[in-house]
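Sample intake sheet
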Amino acid sequence: MQAQQLFELKTVMTFAVSAHKQKNEDYVNYGTVTNKSIVQTHLGLLEDSRAVFVDHVSQECADIAEQIIQYYKGLTFKAMGNKINDFEQKVLGLINCKLVDRRDIGVIASLPKAYFRAVKRDATDITMRKLSTTSIHIGTQSEDIEGAINILNCSFIQSLQCHVVNAEMKGNIVCFFTKHQADHWGEGCDIKAKVKRHQTSKFHGGKETVLNYVKKVDKTL
């Protein structure tokens, strides 16, 4: 008997959200228990010898799945402006079709992590654009500064093999490069640093201060 080839989008997305939760809110595509294999097990596509343990699928998973579908439907507007990449074009096609071929289950399995990352990025963009309207430059070039920062974003730059941090300091935008990952800085911390330069952001048009020699300060000592 031939296995089913097409599945309802909402069903597959719900299982993908459940897999995302089961994998500690991550997307894993290597090893025995991957997000894709969890979704395949839910759908009954794997033989017993290859099936993996799956968690209970909650109503919350279904609700989040619907949010993800609605979010990616918004790619239609990006597509109209030719601002859509090949992966997004593939996703948009699946969303509009409302059916998922078994060959595309891996794509759907990756979407929850991509969605949560995109929502966080969108929220950060809004915050930075709001700050940009009032942000002023801090200190003078080569001046030592210290104070508390709120981390807005920490992204790895592949070409530079380091992370760039965007943060808010006393209502003003600062940024710096670092070898440390996001968990080192947390949601916010106290720092000591030097002012490297002042610039106007090409992204949000606001004034931002570039720092270097940034060190996290533990004020509990």
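Comment: The beta strands are 6-8, 99-101, 144-157, 162-169, 172-178, 188-200, 207-217. The first helix runs from residue 9 to 22.
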